[in-house]
Amino acid sequence: MFRIFFIFSLFLYSQLGAANILQDAIDNAPEGSILKLPAGIYKGSITITKPITIIGKEDGVIIDGEGSGTVIHVKSSYVTLKNLKIIGSGERHDKIDSAITMVEGKHCEISNCVIEDCLFGIDLQMINNSIISNNKITSKDLDLGLRGDGLRLWYSNDNIVKKNSLIKSRDMVIWYSHGNEIVENYGKYNRYSLHLMYAGKNLIKDNMYEFNSVGIFFMYSKDTTAIGNVVKSSLGATGMGIGLKDVSNFTLKNNTVIYCAQGIYIDRSPFEPDTHNWLIGNKVLYNSEAIHFHSLSVNNIMKDNTIMGNIEDVINDSRGARINENEIVGNYWDNYTGFDRDGDNIGDTSHRVYQYADQLWIYNPNVKFFYGSPVISLLNFLAKLAPFTKPIFLFEDEKPKVRIKG
């Protein structure tokens, strides 16, 4: 089918409060047109209802929503937005005031855009087979819970979300969305840098998240792979690296979780009967808790992970977690006290993990404020040395690694 490409150049930019010449240009352009904008400030509250491309042909192309509503609203397939700076959305959460909202389309692209002072960043609703790449997104200067989400996928499938930067936003959410590739993104000073819920068959790869409340959290989802991600310095007493809640058939492979309160959190996962989750080759380093089990969590397969430098390796806060029914084998534990006389890098004895009832911080959250202090460390050491009650057996790794191979 023949497509018309009409190159429309604007030589004058609109002044704030002037007539919306950009909207007029969009309305008058044929389908398939390319609008190349010179530097200038263009009035926002733009609506796009046809296939069209809008490109900032140089730096300094600003589309300003002037503090009202959504700046660019797209209701079409085959729309491309590139090299734009988008500022000044409204502040209404009930209307999801955003820099860009796309609804019911496919084969769209948003790339190389800078989004500032917008409540929500990019909001995709039922958008499929599209590309969101190389965008820099910051929310409004509000308290963390009052900011909007930097990037939202809602019932949006088979998209590529790559090399975006979300800083001082709220969350990046992938809800009811399947088959997406979330690759090489960066998140800092957010709440949830990545939150998936009711989402399946997504690939989460090579992302970097630091100084957030939670790095990556998966809820009520299945058939997803997270590989090569780095989560560090999740903030607060409950700052979490990677969380799994009611998820099934997940693979966490070669991820690094470092300097968090909770490294990997597992809650009733896997959820569906006769399914497994695989935690393979991850590095869980220098966290307060390396692995935290909550509620019934069996049939996880944990192999070739490196558990090193954590205050506690494994925490079980529920009587029914049944940790021993997970397959935990072939991991490196830096507090393993056995030997390797035959040099095969497998300990001669198994690594058995117990929970001590007199570790005060586990049962009294107020004590957790002092977690890691010399006093609590000494008390926990004494509890292990001479416990007042019989310790609870959690699990054993029958083939613990003795050395870390580079």
Report on the architecture of this protein:
It is a single chain. The chain is mainly beta. It contains 3 helices and 41 strands. The strands form 4 sheets. Strands 1-2-5-8-11-14-17-20-23-26-29-32-35-38 form a 14-stranded parallel beta sheet, with no helix packed on it. Helix 1 links the parallel strand 1 (7-9) and strand 2 (33-37).
Content-based structural category: mainly beta
Count of beta strands: 41
Rg: 25 Å
- Report mean pLDDT, rounded to a whole number: 89
Low-confidence stretches: 1-18
- Overall, the morphology is elongated
Strand order across the largest sheet: 1-2-5-8-11-14-17-20-23-26-29-32-35-38
End-to-end separation in angstroms reads: 55 Å
Helix content: under 10%
Count of helical segments? 3
Give the oligomeric state: single chain
Major beta-sheet overview: 14 strands, parallel
Strand content: 35-45%
Please specify the SSE layout and strand pairing.
Elements: E1 7-9, H1 21-28, E2 33-37, E3 40-43, E4 46-48, E5 52-56, E6 61-64, E7 72-74, E8 79-82, E9 85-87, E10 98-106, E11 109-111, E12 114-116, E13 120-128, E14 131-133, E15 136-137, E16 151-154, E17 160-162, E18 165-167, E19 171-175, E20 181-183, E21 186-188, E22 192-197, E23 203-205, E24 208-210, E25 214-219, E26 225-227, E27 230-232, E28 240-245, E29 251-253, E30 256-258, E31 262-267, E32 277-280, E33 283-285, E34 289-294, E35 300-303, E36 306-308, E37 312-316, E38 327-329, E39 332-333, E40 351-355, H2 360-363, H3 374-385, E41 392-397
Parallel strand pairs: 1-2, 2-5, 3-6, 4-7, 5-8, 6-9, 7-10, 8-11, 9-12, 10-13, 11-14, 12-15, 13-16, 14-17, 15-18, 16-19, 17-20, 18-21, 19-22, 20-23, 21-24, 22-25, 23-26, 24-27, 25-28, 26-29, 27-30, 28-31, 29-32, 30-33, 31-34, 32-35, 33-36, 34-37, 35-38, 36-39
Antiparallel strand pairs: 40-41
